[in-house]
Amino acid sequence: MAETQPEFLDVAGTAIAFRRQPGRQPGLVWLGGYKSDMLGTKAETLSAWAAANDRAFLRHDYAGHGESGGDFAQGTISSWLAQSLAVFRRFTEGSQILVGSSMGAWIALRMVQELRRQGEERVAGLVLLAPAPDFTAELVEPKLTDAQRRDLAEKGYFEEPSEYSDQPYIYTRALIEDGRDNLVMTGPIDTHCPVHILQGLDDPDVPPAHAMKLASLLPADDVTLSLIPQGDHRLSRPQDLEMLIGAVEAMVQRAG
To answer: CA 149: distance to chain centroid?
Structure first.
């Protein structure tokens, strides 16, 4: 398969990189995680599957991520959501399945809310991997140390070592405050589409209890929760990728 080259969309003055493949609907839209990019193992696996099955596939990098412009430390859930909506509205047509990993699951759930608010009923399903909606309020804030709170107050950010990169994760005061304006796990979540959650039982970053809480807030007859033994946060082992493709195939068939 020929490698797709990035294209760029100007969103509020920032060049947002994206890749798109033509194909049938429902198409797939990939939403990556915090400080990840659209060339990761899961996105590339979906790209190959979409090409082999003539399915449209769209992916992009948030500002400050991957091939996009912008400063990572300036990013918030609201700004990354706005960029995701801009790419989705510009480069998809017909029904789409959103596949969100970690923070991308939060973006996906917020996209459904915003699209429905505008009368755009085009999301046919959600596949969420190691979902981390509301992670700033649910997973970061409760564990803040005194030193981290001091850094947030005095410097506007704190750093934390990353298992996935030589560079530390940066969490800003703006990200945390903006996160409170984008919470989705405050009550029942009405997606108006089926949802399949894939969660590793050995995830050190997003505990399985978080996925279970999310599942409990979704309509019971439309949600599937798959707990993966020895699965970590990345869910990029061959068996994890097989489960991802299986979930996507089932969602595509269900959506018609």
So the answer is: 27
